[in-house]
Structure of HDOD domain-containing protein:
Amino acid sequence: MAEEPKLEVLMARQPIYTKSQDVVAFELLFRDSEGRFVEGLKDEDATLGVLMGTYSSIFKKGSIKSVPCFLKVTDSFLLNNDVPELPRESFVLELLGHSDISPELIGRVKGLAREGYRLALADYDPRDPKFEPLLNVVHILKLDIQLLGLDNIPPLLQKLRPYQLELLADKVETQDEFRRCLEMGFGLYMGYFLNKPEPVKGKKISGNKVVLLQLLAELQRPAATAESIEQVALNDPALTYRILRVVNSAAFNLQREISSLSHAIALLGVEQIKRWVMLFLTSSDSNKPDELTRNMLVRGRFCELLAEMMGRDEPINHFIVGLLSQLDVLLDMSMDDLMAQVPLQQEMKDALLSREHSYGEMLQQIEFYERGNFDQLSSALDRPFYEVAYRHSLNWAQQIMQAMQNG
């Protein structure tokens, strides 16, 4: 892993989606080294550089783009005039509902709006009149659908209509909730609805995925040879060709063209080919959003890096567990059904089904980090290393998505 600047801040990013499930922004979840929510951007230049370079960056429609980041700001942060000179197009300042909404704060927020900052309001409670003055100032209103209750939202939206706000549905946990919010006319969505599979009864794994699973089984067989692995791959020549195209792509800076899978195995080793087989297993041939594949890649690499840093055995197996932890969502199958069809060691299956063993424990660490539950992270590793590994995984996932698209 390349040397990365260590920050005193733990940061994760949570996607904000459009109706078509494209990512248009990220909300930043962050705490400082003492476990407190960060009042400001300390060590401004380093943190800001990382935010702009990694956390706001996304591979979309064949190129790398930057999307805005939602930055939670407290009233004291705003009133102390601590707001660093942030690029206006790159950040949305998110006001928190527990702020003391004083005339002074309203004046400050109006000033920021005049300066061209985009503003969002979180934790809105329609029963509390204190929010009223802010509705004329902010651009985006975040509604916690779990707190408000889906059935109570339509009359609320009627009441909010005159303010002409962009509405963000927060804590959308299931596909059904997403569809209901869509019907109500929300423009933006946050929550873990993409992480939940909608199993289709009796569904079988599709053709080229079957070959990938056969390849995976062969790669795990102790007596396997480069030739026996190639024989399985040749059942799907198009797939073999794609793997070779990717392996030959610029991401690997190889001195000479690789002409066959057995040649690739001889040059790169079984572990690298196993990794690519897994990556192709996660590439979607359906209408799933890019963010799902991206998150699977991030999880795989993050699991592997943490395993390496903590001195665990078999980092590649941690990679596989992280990567496959959302295969049920990608294929719309229950994890139980999938595990019955996927040739993996039992320990890895147990990790995916019930978070057992070292693999399952590491996957749980990843899930804590993703959700910003930083206080639940293991103390086996210094906190800044988590952030460095996460950031590296974001960059790595981006490179892989590029390689797979060009492959």
